[in-house]
Automatic annotation (TrEMBL):
Signal sequence, start to end: none
Organism: Sphingobium cloacae
Family recorded in the similarity comment: Belongs to the alanine racemase family.
Pathway: Amino-acid biosynthesis; D-alanine biosynthesis; D-alanine from L-alanine: step 1/1
EC number: 5.1.1.1
Name of the protein: Alanine racemase
GO process terms (BP): D-alanine biosynthetic process
Length: 386
């Protein structure tokens, strides 16, 4: 990993984001879906990592299809001025009524999920006297977003509903992609093939991370990976082939030794059963460290596991460091929350959630350091100047 561009000397906690690993993950997915192309899902601030630097790094690497969930997310990326002219920016949730002019103003492509969203976009086309591009999403079994089979029939029977709307992509979404053996994958795939035949020539996109990393003959035209780009596991019960993208370090703020019988933290839910060394770290649930880790999760100090003792507070966590060698324990000593000993999947498991939630909740109080090989950073600066 490259030398950081800045070292926040007094930071309580530092989030490192490895843009080279991000790009490597995007290339891994690209190879898995080839000859289809890999886009990137950068919704929710690129799963908490920062939509602008993530989009920029992937655009520099050649990614041309970016997916966000909300119009405001698309506007933020547009305003940053980082998208190449030939890049597409899709809004997965489509538009709320009245959002059409703002969407058109930034040249984003709404994903139209129902007949009402199609009518809103078509009405906007009539009002502006021109044609606007859109993606069409169909529901193939997840019952979340997308045209129902009946709505698809209506659309085929009444093609005038699409007047002024230029479909550029047909989409659907897999419900069980993280389990390659789930029968739903096959039935959704078949439904998508069937519906795709009704829209001849229209490029298609089905696969999220899990779908993209499933072995199968075809991945349609564009994959929409999110979590795997950011180092999350595409499949729940398999070895994770992705490179980790985030590491999170913090430091000890205070140390103490408590006698047997002394309690720790809110509710005194941890009670020492031996003379116990307690280290307090300045990260809490306000920083996205789940309160569900109370009494369950861990941190690592110089590679030694330090279990969380007691409840996670808003701004701090207490660790039982009794078994950590004393030379690693001092105010300011480094503590690993995410790194070589514990990844996002491990923390998610301890907290009873998924890595997506760990990432998207990462807080805004961390010092953030973006890592990229000097060469890539240099290319980016040149591109910015040009
Ligand atoms: C979030 C999302 C994705 C990305 O899913 P991952 O599991 O993170 O790869 C793809 N498509 C749609 C429609 C989504 O909502």
């Amino acid at each position: 990993m490259a030398v950081p561009e800045q070292t926040p000397d007094h930071a309580y906690a530092t989030l490192h984001i490895d843009l080279d690993a991000l790009v490597a993950n995007w290339r891994t997915i690209g190879a898995a879906v080839s000859p289809a192309t890999a886009g990137a899902v950068v919704k929710a601030d690129a799963y908490g990592l920062g939509a602008v630097p993530v989009t920029q790094a992937l655009a520099d690497a050649g990614c041309r299809h970016f997916f966000v969930a909300h119009l405001g997310e698309a506007e933020a990326i547009r305003e940053a001025g980082i998208l190449p002219p030939d890049a597409q920016l899709y809004i997965l949730n489509g538009l709320m009524p009245g959002g059409e002019p703002a969407c058109a103003a930034i040249g984003a492509v709404p994903v139209l999920n129902c007949l009402a969203q199609i009518e809103g976009w078509a009405a906007f086309a009539r009002a502006t006297g021109r044609t606007w591009r859109a993606a069409l999403q169909v529901d193939t079994g997840m019952s979340r977003l997308g045209l129902s089979p009946d709505e698809v029939q209506t659309l085929i029977a009444q093609p005038q509903r699409l007047e002024g709307v230029e479909p550029v992509l047909l989409m659907s979404h897999l419900a069980c992609a993280d389990d390659p053996d789930a029968p739903a994958n096959g039935s959704q795939l078949a439904a998508f093939e069937r519906i795709g035949a009704l829209f001849p020539g229209l490029p298609r996109s089905l696969d999220n991370s899990g779908g993209a990393m499933q072995r199968r003959p075809a991945h349609f035209d564009i994959a929409r990976p999110g979590i795997a780009l950011y180092g999350g596991a595409p499949h729940e019960h398999a070895v994770n082939p992705m490179r980790p993208v985030v590491t999170l370090d913090t430091r000890i703020v205070q140390l103490r030794t408590i006698p047997p019988g002394a309690g720790v933290g809110y509710g005194l839910s941890f009670v020492a059963d031996r003379p116990t060394r307690i280290a307090t770290i300045p990260v809490g649930y306000a920083d996205g460290w789940p309160r569900h880790l109370s009494g369950k999760g861990s941190a690592f100090i110089a590679g030694h596991r330090a279990p969380i003792a007691g409840r996670v507070s808003m701004d701090s966590i207490t660790l039982d460091v009794t078994d950590v060698p004393e030379e690693h324990l001092y105010p300011g000593a480094p503590v690993e929350l995410l790194g070589p000993h514990q990844g996002i999947e491990d923390v998610a498991r301890d907290a009873g959630t998924i890595s997506y939630e760990i990432l998207t909740r990462l807080g805004h109080r961390y010092a953030r350091i973006l890592h990229a090989a000097p060469q890539a950073a240099q290319q980016r600066r040149m591109a910015g100047r040009g």
